[in-house]
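Sequence in, structure out.
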Amino acid sequence: MSNKRDYYEVLGVQRGAPKDDIKKAYRKLAMQYHPDRNPDNKEAESKFKEASEAADVLLDDDKKARYDQFGHAGMSGGGGGGFQGQGDFGDFGDIFGDIFGDMLGGGRRRGGGGGRSRGRPGDDLQMGIDIDFAEAAFGCEKTISLTKNVKCETCSGTGAKAGSSPTTCDYCNGHGEVRRQQGFFTVSSTCPKCNGSGQMIKDPCGTCNGAGKKKKKVDLQVKIPAGIDQGQRLKLSQEGDAGSMGGPNGDLYVVINIKQHEIFEREEFDVHCTVPISFSQAALGAEMEVPTLSGKVALKIPAGTQSGVKMRLKGKGIQRLGGYGQGDQIVTVHVETPTKLSNEQKEILKRLAEVDHLSNPMSRGFFDKVKDLFQ
């Protein structure tokens, strides 16, 4: 039996709590117990790791679903505590970065820290991509094109002319920041001469004019996982703008936009469609073919089916993210009223009208209630 505490208990949220509440709860605990704020405090470090593991699971739809169903046993082999890599969704990574930004006094800083500022990370980029309904359901691979800053090939990103190299900034002595004493406090600010790089370029590269990077149109292959939904993001690590002075590249976030389908609508992992049937099919029953994402299937319409009745086709919906089962298809039956009747059809319906009160229990019950109401 696992000795781990329940993840919802760890974060102090109720089961079914929205992601925003989970993020707020984790953010509060992480700010309280982060090791940088609690040096040499083993208890605080343990609580920080416990909260991070809980948030990593509860902010991931797939992990959360397994945890809700199987508890800690469902995390074996792929459970909590792991941070996200290329192709994962960015909720946990985003909030984790925000916390570090708050503790550092604003702004997310990857690859940088105190002391010497040897390189600046590149900017994160975001772009949208349109995919078809079926592509979202089954997954696909797409080629995207974007223009971004890439490392200059001429100077290998140094910004210096061939045969030369950057020199240490003489204003900040390579620290990238300058400090001033104001009473009891020391105030640090970015070096105005080298803009925080700690280095100066006397002979700039002729290709990039000393920037160390240049604009270039690139094509990237993006793997779209089966079951992805509208508005979700894919994170492509290190595919954003190039960093400066050896700093890491930023990340690229691809936002999914799913085109509307002519027949199907989506609700989480279930697929909905409306199928029209005739009055005679509804009254007498029938067997008909209905469309699904994987092709046509036979559907039995029971005799006496009413308009608006919903029928479920198990496993004919959308694959759940991570490959753990599929949703269902919900077929809503719509009984059509005939139009442009022939004389023969009119005569048949007139004869039916004379006796149909005997086989319409809902109508009889309704009009009996109306009669009682006005007596």
